[in-house]
Amino acid sequence: MLEKYINAASQREKADLVLKNAQFVNVFNGQIEFGDIAIVGEKIVGVGKYEGKEEIDVNGLTVLPGYIDAHVHIESSQLSPEEFASLIVPRGTTTIIADPHEITNVCGMAGAEYIAKASKNVPLDVKVQLPSCVPATPFETSGATLYGKDIEENINNDYIFGLGEFMNFPGVIYSDADVIKKLEAAHGANKVIDGHAPSVSGESLNAYLCGGIVTDHECVSVDEINEKIAKGVYVHLRHGSSTRNLVSNSTAVNASNMRRFIMCTDDRHAADLKEKGHLDDALRTAVAGGLNPIWAVTIATLNAAECYGLRFRGAIAPFYLADIVVVDNLKNFNAQFVIKNGKLVAKQGKPLFDTAKRYLPNEVLNTVHVNDLKAEDFVLTLKGKKANVMTILPGNVVTGCEVMEIESKDGDVQIEGTDVLKLSVVERHKYTGNIGKALLKGYGFKGGAMGITIAHDSHNIILLGDDNDSMAKAANALKQIGGGMVIVDKKEQKIYTLTLDIGGLMSSRDAESLQRDSKALIERAYGMGVDRNQEAFMSLAFLSLAVIPQVKILDTGLFDVTKFAFMDINAD
Amino acid sequence: MLEKYINAASQREKADLVLKNAQFVNVFNGQIEFGDIAIVGEKIVGVGKYEGKEEIDVNGLTVLPGYIDAHVHIESSQLSPEEFASLIVPRGTTTIIADPHEITNVCGMAGAEYIAKASKNVPLDVKVQLPSCVPATPFETSGATLYGKDIEENINNDYIFGLGEFMNFPGVIYSDADVIKKLEAAHGANKVIDGHAPSVSGESLNAYLCGGIVTDHECVSVDEINEKIAKGVYVHLRHGSSTRNLVSNSTAVNASNMRRFIMCTDDRHAADLKEKGHLDDALRTAVAGGLNPIWAVTIATLNAAECYGLRFRGAIAPFYLADIVVVDNLKNFNAQFVIKNGKLVAKQGKPLFDTAKRYLPNEVLNTVHVNDLKAEDFVLTLKGKKANVMTILPGNVVTGCEVMEIESKDGDVQIEGTDVLKLSVVERHKYTGNIGKALLKGYGFKGGAMGITIAHDSHNIILLGDDNDSMAKAANALKQIGGGMVIVDKKEQKIYTLTLDIGGLMSSRDAESLQRDSKALIERAYGMGVDRNQEAFMSLAFLSLAVIPQVKILDTGLFDVTKFAFMDINAD
Question: How many Å apart are CA A167 and CA A170, to the nearest integer?
Answer without folding.
Answer: 9
